[in-house]
Structure prediction request, 426 residues.
Amino acid sequence: MKILMVNKYLYPRAGAETYMITVAEQLLAQGHEVSFFGMHHPDNTTIGPTATIPFLEFGRGQSFTSRIGQLTKALGHAAVGDARRALESWVKRWEPDLIHAHNIYNQLPPSLFCGVSAQVPVVMTLHDYKPICPNYSLFVGGETCTDCLGGSFLNCVKKRCCHGSLLASTLAAASSAHHRSRGTYSRDYHRFISPSGFVQRRMVEAGFREARIEVINNFAAIPERPTPPGEGLFYGGRLCIEKGVDILLKGYAMLPEPRPKFRIAGDGPLDQELRALSKRLKLDTVEWLGRIRPDQVMDELNATAVAAVPSTWFENCSMAIMEALALGRPVLTSSAGGNPDLVRPGVDGEVFEAGSAVAVRDALARLFDPTVSNLEAMGREAREAALERFSPEVHLRQLHGAYVRTEAAFAREHGHLIRPEKVLLS
Prediction:
């Protein structure tokens, strides 16, 4: 099968790009052909043929004037169809069997595929909530928000959901309203891949057809020989309001002494505030590691007994959870978003009510009480769950199945012929 991967960045800049490139490498290893379409950058992947448009940047230290200038340029590209024509030219030249879209927003318009979606089936992985939420996250002002799921995006303007800016929020709301009224997502995207059942349910709540949204969890590498559980509790990630580290600290402080040791890795806007909170709570068993490398995060997970992912926002499908489970580490996570779907309470971790420090305390007490739980046995269950649900092999098998089903449904709808072996695989 020939698969065209479309993403605004074609180098491992963040999670969506790392996922796309990793999947592409595995598809190539299985004998498929893969090409890419996105923005030009010297660090772009070279694992397959690539077509690009000029690079545009938003944020990352830019001034407000510069960001508006780049946004204006991006809107201009979208208005005159530069990106769309470049994509159409590449599709005509490379002739893919299927297009897999990832993180395309801002620099590439959602309507990018309107000129090719009648010739080639288009699949999109929902790395975030952009099709139903102008600020991508269903989170504003430190709280979760689903006000726009009814179809009106005026609340985005009222709440200034995008960086607290009236202008940015108005532009984002107008874009969402435009694509909703034009039916861009229902017309040009034939199937959505949702990393969690939670995202699928929110999409359906916003008016999308459930039959077009397939749940396929993300994946994590599974080590051949897991290490025995270590000691204490570990959190690794951003120190920001949506990650819930403050709630985790407060719940941890409620445990009777002696508490298990607690190591925290990462940085972010709440770094100093969280350290000050730890001091006020007199938590001398908390150690702050600062920002560490990914390989050091793996070392910390190997050295801990329990991994914590206490998010207060609607996290999609946490890589941190799957990486911990793959290493045989029970996980403490909140009830927010798709994360509780990944953990079985009392089996390979615990789930607490999001935002509740008391619930954190109770869950930690269960995990670290040897009369209630066996962390070594929970670690074995965690690894088995990762092997059965979150391994690269399982993910690729499910993804290829989604590709084949999408192509077959597209062929039936458009009267196209498909190769016999693809019908058999479906």
Remarks:
- Residues 392-414 form the longest helix (23 residues).
- The chain has a mean pLDDT of 91.
- The chain is about 40% helix and 15% strand.
- The first strand starts at residue 2 and ends at 6.
